[in-house]
Amino acid sequence: xxxxxxxxxxxxxxxxxxxxxxxxxxxxxxxxxxxxxxxxxxxxxxxxxxxxxxxxxxxxxxxxxxxxxxxxxxxxxxxxxxxxxxxxxxxxxxxxxxxxxxxxxxxxxxxxxxxxxxxxxxxxxxxxxxxxxxxxxxxxxxxxxxxxxxxxxxxxxxxxxxxxxxxxxxxxxxxxxxxxxxxxxxxxxxxxxxxxxxxxxxxxxxxxxxxxxxxxxxxxxxxxxxxxxxxxxxxxxxxxxxxxxxxxxxxxxxxxxxxxxxxxxxxxxxxxxxxxxxxxxxxxxxxxxxxxxxxxxxxxxxxxxxxxxxxxxxxxxxxxxxxxxxxxxxxxxxxxxxxxxxxxxxxxxxxxxxxxxxxxxxxxxxxxxxxxxxxxxxxxxxxxxxxxxxxxxxxxxxxxxxxxxxxxxxxxxxxxxxxxxxxxxxxxxxxxxxxxxxxxxxxxxxxxxxxxxxxxxxxxxxxxxxxxxxxxxxxxxxxxxxxxxxxxxxxxxxxxxxxxxxxxxxxxxxxxxxxxxxxxxxxxxxxxxxxxxxxxxxxxxxxxxxxxxxxxxxxxxxxxxxxxxxxxxxxxxxxxxxxxxxxxxxxx
Length: 588
What we know:
The protein has 588 residues and is of the alpha/beta class. It has 18 helices and 25 strands. Strands 1, 2, 3, 4, 5, 6 and 7 form a seven-stranded mixed β-sheet that branches. It has a five-stranded parallel β-sheet with strand order 10-9-8-14-25, with helices on one face. The protein has a five-stranded parallel β-sheet with strand order 15-24-16-17-20, with helices on one face. α16 packs across α17. This is NAD(P)/FAD-dependent oxidoreductase. Pfam families: Pyr_redox_2. InterPro entries: Auxin_biosynth/cation_transpt (IPR050982), FAD/NAD-bd_sf (IPR036188), FAD/NAD-binding_dom (IPR023753), NTF2-like_dom_sf (IPR032710).
């Protein structure tokens, strides 16, 4: 690449470092374009926050420059220049750690800046020696040590939820030397996946779904079946030495503001155990409590009814008439599996759904970052994560809309067939497609792996409307249509994660924290005001010592590092002044 691009970036980083060293917020702000975004993940703010435009930069620098003491900004690989934008990866140091980032620079100044804290000085992740050489009478073997840790971990951090999020965080905490325990109601790691309906599989490709430290092997399938994922999580938990308690349910958790400690009462396989951590993490994926609608006649319906989270699979319903209420991912998966065994299946669509074919999603939306071709082009998982994280949520739709416009054109015959069948389809409120729907509301979409064709072809009966009543053997809609049913499946989604937290910490504390998930985009099911980041995820909340972690496998992998660093810093007594603590605008 030309020296011009490298010199331009080096000059900018030098000027930025100089402004920070001088604590000159105005000088730093002048380095940013009139429309610009600085996303900081822990490094400056001890938070996950995005500031916008020079005024936002000025405020962040004024509040954090003295405590961050950032220095030694260096380009880490040759910058690239295209279409008037110079893009560069860089590293830097703070007073307490080392970080990295990505800068996009235009003729007007910085357009986007990402800064992340990657490690704490004096607490770097290193490869353990494993054994102590020499002869000693009091030697404790690895197996003895692990047995003692699992029996009595004396945790500083308790993680409630042992799916991929809790396990990934446990692995990070282990590497940082943090005493922890991950609790889950299921007996074995991975049972969260094994216990779901048998057709469940990952709809995201393998390159998007690696866990920390231990990527999937080269022969791993692109889309993994649920039981294979379950086995991987169980193996991963053991190999990474995560302190994991299965068959354990958290009953209550109370915070003592004087001792700065939690009292967490759990039921471990029938035995009451009390844990006293200083940090409590809810790792609940994206989902809170199942939304089970209250419908007149549920008490008189003589068939079977259950939420999709409790659906055991299709085998017991081969000759049944099944009504599935809902038209998103779980609804399509369940309908497709029931059709395969010969059940008479009706899907009730209550509102519009966004559908994108899996192959098209791979080709147009994920392929440049998470695919075989991306790996061949030198885009590692870490680099892909960095690129994705560097796109602030405010402008992410502008990058997503063209991809979904291309998908709409590529699959126009498919969408025409769906429309002809009466299916109500949308592309999101602003045409930005699946991932923005996921980030904003965590629902409203289906990654099609085949079941949409069954709806388009009439193999799965489609009904439109709201359910108003269950009779002894049917489901009635507000259209007057009556659907005979032996089984009703409520594929009606989940509430906010703080709903599950409320069962353990109490409603007042859950309300103090507020709604978890969503961007405040003021789109469907994501009320404003604009938050700029996911509400209350992976960052400090209004309740000291209480955190939320999770998301899909990609988010669990990426953000587990930054949450683990925040927890480690607090346990080590490192000052963590939080800039722009999440405000509460909605309680559920």
